[in-house]
Amino acid sequence: MSNTTSKTQSKAPMPASSTAQQGDNIAHALAGAGGGLLSMTLTYPLITLSTRAQVESKRAQSSTYDAVRHIVQREGITGLYSGLDSALFGISVTNFVYYYWYEWTRAGFERAAIKAGRASKKLTTIESMLAGALAGSATVLITNPIWVINTRMTARQAPSSEEKTELPTLQNPPSTRKHTTLGTLLALLRTEGPLALFAGVLPALVLVVNPILQYTIFEQLKDLVERRRKVRPLDAFFLGAVGKLLATSITYPYITIKSRMHVNEGKAEGMGQSLRKVIREEGWSGLYKGIAPKVTQSVITAAFLFAFKDVLYDLSVKARRKIPAKIST
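The structure assignment produced for this chain is given below.
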């Protein structure tokens, strides 16, 4: 009887621990989603400029200032926020899924480290990269349709057989007709079918290396700071900026290819074919169109994301601790 009781008592804490871990994963996911919403709202005009530059043809080359002027002249200030609603939905889902899977995978590696008797349960660089790869792949497969719709809306290219399908230029500018998220989705499904929602998924999977590089750099730099003192939101801001700057600069050609594939309506091209086509028609520089606003946006977004996420995570943890206290009173 006593043996049964002792076994029951030894097993009892496990569900609580599992529940606590699950709650922590969700807290990280919600904090990431909230941080993404805030940071994207602040930097969205830069996303519009970068996306337009990525999908336009070589004849449409212009400076960032000219691009802003043309958009505002044709579409007003709201033109800089084309597709913002789908982008906010996309970033919230993307960050929630990514952070949830990342924390779930990291917890698994930490449990394995404890069982193996390792001196530190902190993730090694390889483990951090694997966690990022798993989280990133799951995120791409779940959220790619959202970003296809967002790219179409941002580039103002309607998926309709009645509209022109060539890439926009300054002489042949994007359509100024307003398209809703639902309208763009239904038109795409009607004219191109469900598979069009997964256009560009291969370069997107390749781009999983972007957050892997970003978070690996961030985590390693964060560990260096933590050895000396507690990481503050301002530290997270700058560490996140450095990580994203390096990651985006390295992977930018694939970001361009992914955007081109998202708007290549009715023209099924593989990643290799799209890559060769850009190099042949526009040279290597064609792979880096719009890099200035994109890198600026990515760095600022990542910096704000990490700063906001840490604050939101701390707030969510404090809120969770207050709930049991209120229930007990």
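Interim note for the steering committee: The chain is about 75% helix and 0% strand. The CA atoms of residues 70 and 76 lie 9 Å apart.
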